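Agenda item 2: nicotinamide-adenine-dinucleotide complex prediction
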Amino acid sequence: LLQKVQIDHHLEELGTYLLNLPAFIKPVVLVDTHTREKCLPVFNSAVPASKGFSIIEIPAGEFNKSPEQLLAILTELVNLGADKHTLLINLGGGVVSDIGAFAATIYKRGIRFIHIPTSLLAQIDASIGGKNGIDFLGYKNLLGTITFPEQVFISKKFLETLPGPEMKSGVAEAFKHGLIADKELWDHIKDAPLDHIDHLLERSVSIKLSIVSEDPYEKNTRKILNAGHTIGHAIEAARMQVNDPVSHGEAVAAGLIMECYISQEMNLLPKDEFIEIEQTILRFFGKIKIDNLGREALLKLMLQDKKNQDQKISFSLIRSIGRASIDDYCSEELIFQALDYYSK
Ligand SMILES: NC(=O)c1ccc[n+]([C@@H]2O[C@H](COP(=O)([O-])OP(=O)(O)OC[C@H]3O[C@@H](n4cnc5c(N)ncnc54)[C@H](O)[C@@H]3O)[C@@H](O)[C@H]2O)c1
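Presented output:
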């Protein structure tokens, strides 16, 4: 395994890990506005030694997963005199872990970093698997690397302050994990995901870890984790462009419905399972607005997807609940049909 991920609700393992670091290692904590206020105190009280750590703060929100904020973090690292003995601790949601890991990867050609994910989405998905990066020129995650954090410490204590819509956002990735790899997880959480948070955390983390370990650099099988994201990312980016952002999870949830529609139309996914997936996701997330985004604009965004080959949009489709495939292609017409189906 390239990274160690621990469920550590009381942050005891984290305390031990930090205590055992050589004295010359200087930790710096990266937070955003919200996690500074809500999560840093939790971290400080669980790990008293952390009170003397330097802090770098970025403004909260996807809009700040940007080149400007990346440069701001790097500038702060220089100002703090950070060197190869600096440990960057990313305390926050997926935005903080993505941009923080990217900064740590390129600063002085790489310094050590760990994640303490504080949103449900970051705990079950973004903090695991080494992908990092920033959005660029309106495209999601266009710049970045795959570089693994040394450790990930997951505590549900942080979820106590996470706003409701952000909790929901995380559920989309848990649904996806069930759909691509674990029917038992799907069945367990589909009716009331947030009533089963321990099970959801445990299973989801372990599914993501096992898929990533098999193919860490996404040569093939890891691509199944992109289910729902080909269309989902396009929607997320397009809604940001019209200054009306949706959460990553809401966009992925909508993407899952449309991509399952495609799968069903191609006779890859049984109709009754499509209906179950669609109804479950709609019950939990409702519908989001996409008809003002423009089909061509969405298609253009999908054409930047990193899975594509030969300018053809590549999907990872659900074949049945608990099983997905990779490198699936369909006509542009069918993509438009899926967008229309969802918008109607
Ligand atoms: N690297 C990967 O493999 C991967 C996987 C999935 C998603 N992502 C990325 O993750 C990002 C989405 O992550 P996210 O949903 O965590 O977004 P986020 O980091 O923006 O967090 C959502 C909001 O919740 C706040 N917040 C986080 N933890 C909190 C807490 N404990 N209490 C109160 N407020 C808290 C944040 O400040 C922010 O306002 C996207 O950029 C997406 O592309 C990356």
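Discussion summary: Residues 32, 34-35, 38-39, 60-62, 65, 92-96, 98, 118-119, 121-122, 125-126, 129, 131-132, 140-141, 158, 161-162, 166, 169, 248 surround nicotinamide-adenine-dinucleotide (CB under 6 Å).
Owner for follow-up: CH.
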